């Protein structure tokens, strides 16, 4: 559960950055 929460927090941040790049490019 802790790993999932950490992955969700870090993964969500990374995904938000990636999606932001796609939308702003």
UniProtKB/TrEMBL annotation:
Q: What is the top-level taxon of the source organism?
A: Eukaryota
Biological process (GO) annotations held by this record are: L-tryptophan biosynthetic process
Q: Cross-referenced Pfam families, in alphabetical order? A: IGPS
Q: Which UniProt keywords apply?
A: Amino-acid biosynthesis, Aromatic amino acid biosynthesis, Lyase, Tryptophan biosynthesis
Q: Using the UniProt record, name the top-level EC class of this enzyme in a single word.
A: lyase
Which reactions is this enzyme annotated as catalysing? 1-(2-carboxyphenylamino)-1-deoxy-D-ribulose 5-phosphate + H(+) = (1S,2R)-1-C-(indol-3-yl)glycerol 3-phosphate + CO2 + H2O
Task: Give an example GO molecular function.
Answer: indole-3-glycerol-phosphate synthase activity
Q: Which residues form a coiled coil?
A: none
Q: In which pathway does it act?
A: Amino-acid biosynthesis; L-tryptophan biosynthesis; L-tryptophan from chorismate: step 4/5
Entry protein name: indole-3-glycerol-phosphate synthase
**Record organism:** Nymphaea colorata
């Amino acid at each position: 559960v802790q790993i999932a929460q950490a992955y969700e927090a870090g993964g969500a941040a990374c995904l938000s950055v990636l999606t932001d790049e796609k939308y702003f490019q």
